[in-house]
Each structure stands twice: as structure tokens, then as C-alpha cells.
Amino acid sequence: MDELCTGLCRLMVDSGADAGLAQFLSLLVGVLLVSGVPLLTVILLIWIERKVAARIQDRIGPNRVGPIGLMQTFADLLKLLGKEDITPTNADRWLYNAAPLVSFASVVLIWAVVPFTPFHYGVDLEIGALFFVAIASFGTLAIMVAGWASNNKYALLGAFRVVSLLVSYEVPLVFALLVPVLLAGSMSMLDIVNAQTGMWFVVLSPLAFVIFYVSSQAETGRAPFDLIEAESELVAGFNIEYSGMKFGMFFAAEFLHVFTNGILMALLFFGGWLGPLYYESPLIAFAWLGLKGGIIYLTTLWLRNTVPRLRIDQIMAFNWKFLVPLSIANLIFVSAALKVMQELGWAPREMIGASFVDLLPTTLILLLINGAMIIYLLGILRKKGREARRESPSTRATLAQAAAD
Amino acid sequence: MELNAVTIGFVVFTIFTLGGGFGVVTTRNLFQGTIWLMLSLFGVAGYFVLLSAPFLAAVQVLVYIGAIAILITFAVMLTRSVTRIKARYVRLVPSFIGSLALFLVLLLGITIPIFGGQLPESAPEYVATTRELGAALVDENGYVVPFMLASVLLTAAMIGAIFIARDETT
């Protein structure tokens, strides 16, 4: 009981409150904070996303409501709340209304295991990384349910496309996630960050980071994997029948998911809050995490607004024929190399507490293995690209023209 | 029975598990049946948490809700009529006898040790780490033989699936 009752709770007990009540209240405050922060962040995120997208497309973006358009999201929110709440006649009422809630909850729940600073986190689950993957699977379920319960053929087709995408890209995502878990020797998010004191995991295995980045971009349904919204073919996708705030929840879940992935990548691969002076104050630690997560988040926005959408068969082929074998190979190479080095005494047995110098040989060898794999892969990709270009109709036409001349 | 968080959790998860199961067998809508099944499996995941096995709980959610249930929904969509199924299961007497026999076996198996004075040990407060679970799976004195057998079985099933699904013409 004592170890559960610290901070605010201890303060209340000392000032004469009942111990059980004090513990309950402090837990309640913690839960409200952990779930409230993402809810408020998403309002700002929508504004950031629209501004960034506008700049990339040579526009200004929202600029009328409030200073530099900051109040635009609030105006949109009020509009969504005021809209008529439509339920299609033959929709499965219960499932139809539950789907947006599950979708949003699946993203907010991830924040339960996200540590903001070394001392401020929802819970430090021993299975933190696994919890994140398990919770994300509820999002897939929500989309399937939404598509079916809407009683609309376009919605169902859209849901099928999206679910097949999500289920497929979960495989490389989990294999890439296993690399930081394996390096840290723990699935707890706190341990994974603490294990990066000597060296960030992105240096030990850049390939794992790239795979995680690509598959999490797909998991959020962002370009070039934005099958989730195919206006020209499917009208809108799985959320076509949703109006008002129910649509707003799907929308908010997607925006929040992108930012959550940025923070997760910062934690898993870029050392989270580790940075100069992080131990001085929790605020500095939090700022480091926010900065790293924010930079990764901005790159995903950049990517989203730059590349066009791929065809569904291309997306599937890319996943099953390229990403999955690659992620498995990466995992095998990293784990084998790490074990051999540990047996030879070149690598520390425990990453937590290992210094930069301890990790130097490990870093060099793992980086070398990853570099070799990347060079080999680039060679394969180049060859494939050349073949594809040679066989494309436009090239053939040019060649035929040249032959005729 | 002491009223604490564990008891409340147990009651809630029991409602989930049994209610979900009841929903699966009574609904006339295959898709809703799948959702009920997920609710039931989620309740089982809750039991794992109460039994101090968070790893198994997360795997239960990941595998059953994230993978198997999604597969079931895909399979359900391929069936001819998803909603308002007309067909009724008629062999009620044999099913009744079978389920009653199973229930009695479980009931006796659980209650006899309690009345015989051998109270089962309650779940340990301390949570077994994933590291220990992994070590037990590959330990000679642990579960290495079942682990190997399961691995071989899964590999064989996967090879079989690939062989069946392969296009003969290519």
C-alpha cells in the first residue's frame, strides 16, 4: 500500500484524509491526466496538420478564426457537435454507435503505458510493448464493425480494404518492435528507454526503425498507404455513413494515432526523454520527448503530403514480399549477433546501465550488419525498379518508336 | 467473500465471458455472434490478469481478438446469409446430455478437492515475469518437449496451408 501511495496521495494522507480515499483520488487524477492530455493534444494536432499540409501544397491554411487560425479546430468541433446525428435505417444500432468509441479508445489506451518522464507515467507494465500491440488490434476491430454495421456496400468494401491492410502491416510492425525489446531485454517502456542511456537503438538497428516507421505509417492509414480513404472509388471508405461527432471520433483517433506513433518511435528508438540535462528536471525530460516525437511526427506529415497513393495489390506485395521477410531477417541477424557478442564478452549482458564505451563494439558490429543488409536491399530494389521500368507500357512505346525510326 | 477490486473484476469478467458465450449461441446474426465471441474471449483475458499473468492476457487479446476474430469476421462475410439465419439446430437432446455431462465433470473436478479439504493455493500476489515464462519454455525440466511439439505442429500446418493454397498452374 505504501509504495502505491506517493506524491499527491501522501500529501492527502498527511493532511488527515482516509488512506483508501486518498489513493483512489490520486489514481483518478492520474487517469484523468493520462487520458486528458491526448484529448487536448489532438485539437492542436489537427491545426498543425492542416497548416503543414497547406504549406506543402503552397497554401496558407486556416487563418481566419483566431490568431493564425488557432481557433479553427474549435469552430470545426462546434460545427460537428451541432450536426444532425444520423443512424441509417437498417444499421446495426448498437455496433454502429460503439465502433467510433472503440476506435478512439484504442488510441487513447496506448497512452496508459507511454512514460512522459522517468517519474511520470500511467503504468509501467512489464508487458508495455505487447500491450501497445494488443490494444492497437481493437482499432482494426472497430473499423470492421463500423463498415459492417453501417449497412452500406461502400462502407463494407472500404472496411475490407483497410482491415486487410492493417492485419498485414501488423506483422512487420511487431517484428520491428521486437528488436528494441530484444536489445533492452525487457518489454517495459521504462526499461526500454533506460537501456538507451549508452546508445540509442536507432543506431544499433536503423533497419528496425525504418520498418517500424513504414508499417506504423500504414497502420495509421496515411499516404502512401491511405486505402482508408479512397474518395474516387469508395466515396469515403468505412466511415461514409457516419456524421457529426461520431465521424469526428474516427477523425480524431486517426490524428492522435499518428502523433502517438511519433512518441512511441521516440521512446523505442530515439531514447525518449534522454538528452542533455534530462535528470535536472522532469520538465526538461518531457521537452526532450516532445521534441523527438514532434520531429518524427512532422516527417510523417511531410511524407503524407508528398507521395501519391499506391494500388492495393502493390501495397500488399510490398508488405508480404519485402517488409515481412526483411523484418524477420533483421530480427534473426540482430539477435544472433547480440548473443554471439555476449558470449564472447564484447557486449554487456544488461543494456540498462551500460555506458557508451561499453556499447561501442556492439554498436559498431550491429551497425555494420545493418549497413550490409541495407546496401544489399538497395541493390535488389534498384534491379526490380529497372525491370519494372523496362516493362512499363510507356517505355515500350518509346522503344517501339525508336525502332520504327 | 471479501468485496475488493479483485472480486469486482472477477464478477465483471465472468459476466463478460458467460454473457458473451450466451450471446454467441442465441443470436441469429453471425456477425453479432462474432462480436459476442470477442467479448467472451476478452473476459478470459481479464481472468489472466486476475491470475497474475499479464503476458498471457495481452497475448489472449492480441491473438484471439486481433487475429482470430478478424479472420472469423472475414469467414462470416463469405457465408451466404449473415443475418436472420433461418436454420435451427434440432439435435437438442444429445447436446443437452453432452453439455450436462461436461458440466458435471468440471463441477466435480473443481469442488471435490475443496470439500476434501485440499484447498487449492490462491494465485500468487507476485507477477511472474516474462523472462521466467520464456526460460520455463526452453528449460529441460520445464516445458521444452510440449514447446517443440507445438512448434513442429505449427510449422507442418503452415507448410500444409501453403501447399494447398498454391496455384497448380504456375
Give an overview in words.
The complex is a heterodimer of chains A (405) and B (170). Chain A is mainly α. Chain A has 2 domains: 1-82, no CATH class; 86-393, no CATH class. Chain A contains 15 helices and no strands. Chain A has helices spanning 8-14, 19-56, 72-82, 93-108, 128-149, 153-184, 189-194, 201-204, 206-219, 231-234, 244-269, 282-304, 312-344, 356-391, 393-404. The longest helix of chain A has 38 residues, at 19-56. Chain A is globular. The model of chain A has no long low-confidence stretch (mean pLDDT 83). Chain B is an all-alpha fold. Chain B has 2 domains: 5-128, NADH-ubiquinone/plastoquinone oxidoreductase chain 6, subunit NuoJ (Four Helix Bundle (Hemerythrin (Met), subunit A)); 129-170. Helix content of chain B is 72%, strand content 0%. Chain B has 6 helices and no strands. In chain B, helix 2 packs antiparallel against helix 3. Chain B is globular, with a radius of gyration of 21 Å. The mean pLDDT of chain B is 83. Classes of the chains: A mainly alpha (405), B mainly alpha (170). At the A-B interface, helix 5 and helix 6 of A face helix 2 and helix 3 of B.
Secondary-structure map:
The complex is a heterodimer of chains A (405) and B (170).
Chain A lengths: L7 H7 L4 H38 L15 H11 L10 H16 L19 H22 L3 H32 L4 H6 L6 H4 L1 H14 L11 H4 L9 H26 L12 H23 L7 H33 L11 H36 L1 H12 L1
Chain B lengths: L4 H22 L3 H21 L3 H25 L13 H24 L14 H9 L5 H22 L5
Return the structural class of chain B.
mainly alpha
Biggest sheet features of chain A? none
Strand content of chain B: under 5%
Overall tally of domains of chain A: 2
- Overall shape of chain B: it is globular
* CATH topology term of the largest domain in chain B: Four Helix Bundle (Hemerythrin (Met), subunit A)
**Poorly predicted regions of chain A:** none
